[in-house]
Each structure stands twice: as structure tokens, then as C-alpha cells.
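C-alpha cells please, single chain.
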Amino acid sequence: MVIVSGVLAWIAGSGVVQGLIMGLTFAFLTTVVVLNAVARTETTTVNGWSAIRKAGRPGNGLLVRAALQKALPVVNVFEEAAYWTAVSDDAGKPLSGERTYRIHFPAGGLPPNDAFWSLTATDTVGYIVDASAAHASVNSHSGLVANVDGSVDILLQRDRPSGDTQNWVATPPGRYKLMLRAYLPGAAIVDGRYEVPPVVQVPS
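Here you go.
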């Protein structure tokens, strides 16, 4: 018992062990920084919406695969499921549940697809804050109401709006992010011609 205690005391006070722990910690933090940097180089942002078009492709190198798995774990290839995320409005300000926003899709401008699309508001990590909320997302089956010219406006705000609510996404309190997904995306998405409209704050 005395010997074991002595060994443990030596380990606790050993500069070698402390150096090893510090080295491993530094290596971990460096790896995180490198992976984040690589993921940023593979991310395309248009109108405040970011997408990683190379995610899930088997031809990616080891470093790129690791970086993209960290950014988008267990994701399909872009040609099967396109993902965009937004954390700020068109002015570059972080999205906040204290404000109201609108996304205006021109006539025929909803995400083209051969399956379905969905728009979801989550916390900054990516979790739906209230999974029971009926309006945490809208999708191609939500019966969205079009404007007279065929365009579609989606309202993003915390409180239920007056009138119809088909076009409303309930947002969580504080900062949040949006995720737009299109499954079996159309050719305009795959070849990069399609652009998701910006998130615009509605004056109070």
C-alpha cells in the first residue's frame, strides 16, 4: 500500500506526466482548430446561408473527411440531401428570438426537389428547443399560402402571428440558427444555380 501511494505521489508530481497531459491537451486543441479551418474553406455562403457541398463524398481526403464529419456528422452527399444553415440575417446580425424575420421566396423559388424540403429553427447547437412545438418547422407539405404573385413569405418569430399560421416558424428565445434541407435536390441546387433568399428582419 505504501509503495502504491508512493507511485501515485510520484505520478502526481512528475513533470513528465504533467508535460504529457499538457501536450495531449495542446494536440487536441490544435486538431480542433485545424479541422474548423478546413471546414471553413469547404463552406460556401450565399445570402447568409452556408452549405458544404463536398460533405459525404468518398473521394475527399482524410483531413477533409474528418473536418466535414465534425461540421456535419452522418450527412448524405449533397446530391442526395442538400443542407444550408443560417445564423445571421441579411445585415450580418445574429438571429434572435427577440426579433421577427421574413424569408421571401419569389414565385417558383421554393427549393426544387424530387422528394421534399424543410426549414427548421433550432438552438445554436442544432437541437429543436421544444420538440413538441407544432410550428418548429415548415416543409413542402405544410400547405404554405402563396401571395397574389405566386411568391411565398415565411415568417420567423417567437409568438404566434394573427391569422393563418401555415407560413410561420416558431423561433426559440435568444440566439438560434436555421436549417434548410432539400432531399433529392433539383438540378438547380446540385449545379449551384439555386440561391436561398436572405433572412430579413421585419421592422417592429
